[in-house]
């Protein structure tokens, strides 16, 4: 079927998103096949997913490798107690993520120049380098759930914007070291063209609830379906703004800058109107100004709007970086 633009012309290119998703699925299947075959095609051992990096090897081990896999950099020191908590967690996650990112550990005491180049004020500090571009992730020993969410966002950007699907891991080498070999990824169960077409028709008829349910039906069997995830996010957004009075919403947001409900409603309207940077900037600022449940509500809505746009949109990566800065 020909993907549709969900009545949001100029905001989302569903065809491009679907094409990126299909390319990613093929790459993942090839990667899984290499893993299942015992590491053919340049597969690495699980122990190679965590490397120590110094200034002399930074270009080779980080910058060059970032052209094939996201490289997460852990800036640490022996005397840093939080580093002793965060470091082993990142190392474990690097193995669990099975080649989706590479962990580079930098001892700041021995590599002062790298610390200065990245503008690090305190440790532990975690950055990422994707296709040669540096991105701050977080500072301090964050909770595992929060770290996983950040890593998932990083991997999504790397896949959808730069086509990086990670490196194959030699399952046999991992098993030889006492690790259980990773399960090979199964091919998607699709196709789901009939359900996706039904969802598109529902959107054309402004039946946003029906469209959302159709997309959910796809995701039950195929949770990674890119088009369904994007379509669901759009259907839910359009349902939220359907009965809003734009003038009242914008007046409330202007008069109550600390009212999270007013700000997220205005951000929804910004996005539907094609003002993507305004929507992202409004919610990043709301996250910065708030705390607790209010802050979390603004953060979650911003992540939902990232889903609406699609991770390959060039406006998403800077907004993710801005969100990381105000969070950490």
The proportion of residues in beta strands is 5-15%
Secondary structural class: alpha/beta
Helix coverage percent of residues?
55-70%
Rounded average pLDDT: 80
Question: How do the helices and strands follow one another from N- to C-terminus?
Answer: HEHEHEHEEHHHHHHHHHH
Largest sheet properties: 5 strands, mixed
Query: Can you tell me the overall shape?
Result: globular
Poorly predicted sequence stretches spanning 5 or more consecutive residues = 1-27, 37-41, 175-190
**Biggest sheet: strand arrangement:** 1-3-2-4-5
Can you describe this structure?
It is a single chain. This protein is α/β, with parallel strands linked by helices and about 325 residues long. About 55% of the residues lie in helices and about 10% in strands. It is built from 14 helices and five strands. It has a five-stranded mixed beta sheet with strand order 1-3-2-4-5, with helices on both faces. Helix 9 crosses helix 11. It is globular. The chain starts with 13 loop residues before the first helix and ends with a helix. The relative contact order is 0.13.
């Amino acid at each position: 079927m020909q993907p549709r633009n969900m009545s949001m012309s100029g905001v989302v290119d569903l065809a491009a998103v679907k094409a990126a998703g299909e390319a990613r699925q093929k790459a993942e299947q090839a990667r899984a096949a290499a893993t299942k075959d015992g590491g053919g095609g340049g597969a690495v051992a699980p122990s190679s997913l965590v490397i120590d990096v110094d200034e002399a090897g930074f270009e080779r081990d980080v910058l060059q490798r970032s052209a094939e896999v996201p490289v997460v950099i852990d800036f640490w020191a022996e005397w840093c107690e939080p580093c002793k908590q965060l470091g082993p967690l990142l190392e474990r996650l690097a193995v669990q993520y099975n080649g989706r990112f590479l962990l580079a550990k930098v001892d700041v005491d021995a590599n002062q120049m790298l610390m200065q180049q990245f503008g690090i004020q305190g440790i532990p500090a975690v950055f990422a380098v994707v296709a040669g571009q540096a991105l701050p992730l977080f500072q301090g020993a964050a909770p595992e759930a929060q770290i996983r969410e950040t890593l998932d966002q990083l991997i999504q950007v790397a896949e959808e914007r730069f086509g990086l699907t990670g490196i194959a891991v030699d399952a046999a080498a991992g098993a030889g070291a006492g690790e259980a070999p990773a399960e090979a990824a199964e091919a998607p169960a699709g196709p789901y063209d009939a359900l996706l077409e039904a969802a598109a028709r529902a959107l054309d008829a402004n039946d946003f609830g029906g469209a959302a349910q159709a997309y959910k039906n796809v995701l039950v069997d195929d949770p990674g379906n890119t088009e369904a995830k994007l379509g669901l996010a759009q259907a839910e957004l359009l349902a939220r703004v359907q009965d809003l009075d734009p003038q009242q919403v914008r007046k409330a947001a202007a008069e109550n800058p600390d009212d999270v409900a007013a700000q997220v409603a205005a951000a929804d309207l910004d996005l539907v109107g094609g003002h993507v940077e305004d929507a992202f900037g409004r919610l990043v600022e709301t996250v910065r100004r708030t705390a607790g449940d209010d802050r979390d509500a603004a953060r979650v809505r911003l992540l939902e709007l990232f889903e609406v746009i699609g991770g390959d949109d060039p406006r998403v990566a800077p907004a993710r970086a801005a969100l990381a800065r105000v969070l950490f």
